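Exercise: predict the structure of this protein bound to 2-phosphoglycolic acid.
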Amino acid sequence: MRQTLIVANWKMYKTLAEAEEFIERFPGEIAGISGMETVICAPFISLARLSVLTERTTLLLGAQNMHWQKEGAFTGEISPLMLRDLGIKYVIIGHSERRLHFNESSLLIKRKVASAFNFGLIPILCIGENWEQHSSKETEKVIAEQLFGALEGLTVEKDILQKMVLAYEPVWAIGTGTPAHGDEANAIAGFIRSLLQEKWGEVSEKVRILYGGSVNPDNITEFTGKEEIDGALVGSSSLNVKTFAELIRVVFSERRA
Ligand code: PGA
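Solution:
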């Protein structure tokens, strides 16, 4: 059984004070929820403080990006060592906004994934097609290219590799209010698992695959209710304490039903 995972991606939202307020209120809002993981991927400058505030909670923290080197003359960058030092567990890698606005290439993403594993961080690797690719039925081709582009040649043990998280995020569904259909997302998640199976055998059964793109409390179970989907990467619906708590509660009740 793969444990359900809900990841909040706060993107470039929330000052430190706003982040603190969220983290102080949130555990109370989800009291009694167990058996699933909730991760908050906050902006870098809030992570140090949030790592203290989350110490006695079940919440886990993630970063939204990182450099691949341990340290060095890379002005403006944050290293995996710095993240690990704070007790950060997850790191989003290759989000489509980074591929698009910061020209992140497959090679760069591959380096970051390898580095995350090296430093004991769990990469949440994002893959997904844009609208043009979707309309021209190139989704599977794009997914395979992005997946192998990031993972081909990676030299990590299978028991480490299987901790990896993949997020299927169709670019056209992100921030648009128009999510993919649950069945469609489930089919792509199944396709991703079949690619993993071909390359890495039984690892494919352990890797968690999330759906991301306009998820909210009203539509979340359309995704988490599917066999191949193990959770969600949530952007705008993770910014408000009440909304995100509701989303977590909906998933929890569905799992118990
Ligand atoms: P959204 O963002 O939920 O606001 O669509 C998802 C993401 O970019 O991870």
